[in-house]
Amino acid sequence: MAKATANFVCQSCGNATSKWSGRCDACGEWNSITEEVPLSQGPGGKTLGATRGRKVALSDLATTEAAPPRTASRIEELDRVLGGGLVPGSAILVGGDPGIGKSTLLLQAAAAFARAGQKVIYASGEEARAQVRMRAQRLGLGEASVQLAAETNLRDILTTLEAEKPGLVIVDSIQTMWVDNVASAPGSVAQVRAAAHELTTFAKRQGTSVIMVGHVTKDGQIAGPRVVEHMVDTVLYFEGERGHQFRILRSVKNRFGPADEIGVFEMTGAGLAEVLNPSALFLSERGTPAPGSVVFSGIEGTRPVLVEFQALVAPTPQSQPRRSVVGWDGGRLAMILAVLEARCGIPFAGLDVYLNVAGGMKINEPAADLAVAAALLSAREDIAVPPETVVFGEISLSGALRPVGQTENRLKEAQKLGFSNAILPKGGKATGKSGMSLSQMPDLVTLVGEMFGA
Ligand code: TYD
Ligand code: MG
């Protein structure tokens, strides 16, 4: 048997070296390097993930292993985010703030996949079996044929899985799992990394899908090194605002489907309910159009979603005015303020600017530029944008407007929700088929002129 080689790993960034040092070369952290023995070379001596170095021609694979058969949970919002269902042998990481509803979602998913004919094991290191069962009963899933395991020793879990051969295993959470030959506490980087690695290798080897829950740190990253995200096939984030009822499941990486796809859920007394028409939900709290409020017709993944941008512009006595953004990129807001100032001669100096995406949704499309600009102008001039109007388009540094993708889909969604006008860049592929009346603008100066008759 090969001698176990020493492996020194930085607990801060996950960088591995062959010798110990007081300071990590990769991230500069002091005293963060500890010795690790890989589990595959640990007691028992069996290399868990090893297969013989058998070579297969790519063309041979194509015929037998192309287009993996997927299992749909029939929770439509979940299936869409997964890229059409669960791929056998895939490793999935679900991250999110504590209390956001990860365990609830995954218990519902476990029951749904069990109903779809999968053998499902739910391994919880956070809650006792009785607690999970109580939650299942509250969700009306008491009869679901899901096996529960309250276990944190990964070797025991893997032994069970080898024997049971389930189609899907849910591990809640990866931070509670404990690999017995890594000498650090559960939840440490080394443990999280080792546990994720063992589970991912197991998934690939046995064709079992593995869903791991991961807690996120204060700055919104999945706790543990980035390498965990690289190991798995799919990374999903479950996000939402505390005060709001709805939750968004977003794919940030997916080897088996589109990234940036979202599924929308509502937290109810009986668990998470699907929201099949998110636009209606995001706009539901909208009253009569007020200055600073603009509806943006966005695309999330493969689907158009309408959201409301709200801006407030107010004079400030401070020499450094505030720029506060929720749900959008602060840097992008600064850029739009600069373009408005430099190209349209509309200054925001001496004014506090607050920008908010209603309902706790996060937007990162550049296509929202024009909606943001319109909201800022409308707030600053205290003039409401005409009702039943949606806005979208990208703004360049010159102040010109650039058409964005999926114009027709954005218009169709807006029309479906009762909007009749759209403000958008000139030159896009808008055909007018949607029946919307279109105001197509070449640049920001034209928009200012149209909105305020300047
Ligand atoms: P949970 O799934 O335990 O969150 P996580 O696993 O991400 O930490 O969800 C906990 C919250 O969800 C809790 O504050 C109560 C709420 N909740 C409901 O509102 N309705 C329900 O049916 C359930 C099960 C939970
Ligand atoms: Mg939980």
UniProtKB/TrEMBL annotation:
It comes from the Bacteria. A motif (RadA KNRFG motif) lies at residues 253-257. Residues 67-216 form the RecA family profile domain. InterPro entries: AAA+_ATPase, DNA_repair_RadA, P-loop_NTPase, RecA_ATP-bd, Ribosomal_Su5_D2-typ_SF, Ribsml_uS5_D2-typ_fold_subgr, Rubredoxin_2. Coiled coil: none annotated. One of its GO terms (cellular component) is cytosol. GO terms for biological process: recombinational repair. Keywords: ATP-binding, DNA damage, DNA repair, DNA-binding, Hydrolase, Metal-binding, Nucleotide-binding, Stress response, Zinc, Zinc-finger. Transmembrane segments: none annotated. GO terms for molecular function: ATP binding; ATP-dependent DNA damage sensor activity; damaged DNA binding; hydrolase activity; zinc ion binding. The keyword rRNA processing does not apply. ATP binds at G96, D97, P98, G99, I100, G101, K102, S103. SUPFAM superfamilies: P-loop containing nucleoside triphosphate hydrolases, Ribosomal protein S5 domain 2-like. CDD domains: RadA_SMS_N. Residues 352-454 are annotated as: Lon-protease-like. The middle region has homology to RecA with ATPase motifs including the RadA KNRFG motif, while the C-terminus is homologous to Lon protease. PANTHER family: DNA REPAIR PROTEIN RADA (PTHR32472), DNA REPAIR PROTEIN RADA-LIKE PROTEIN (PTHR32472:SF10). Belongs to the RecA family. RadA subfamily. Plays a role in repairing double-strand DNA breaks, probably involving stabilizing or processing branched DNA or blocked replication forks. DNA-dependent ATPase involved in processing of recombination intermediates, plays a role in repairing DNA breaks. Stimulates the branch migration of RecA-mediated strand transfer reactions, allowing the 3' invading strand to extend heteroduplex DNA faster. Binds ssDNA in the presence of ADP but not other nucleotides, has ATPase activity that is stimulated by ssDNA and various branched DNA structures, but inhibited by SSB. Does not have RecA's homology-searching function. This is DNA repair protein RadA. It comes from Alloyangia mangrovi. The gene is radA.
